[in-house]
Amino acid sequence: MTKSETRLMPTGTCWCGCGNEVGLGSFFSQGHDKVAEAALLAARYDNSVARLIAHHGFGPDDGVREAAVENGYWERCPGVDCKYLGAPASIRLHRKKAQH
Question: Which residues, including other chains, have CB under 8 Å from residue 78's CB and lie 6 or more apart?
Answer without folding.
Answer: 95
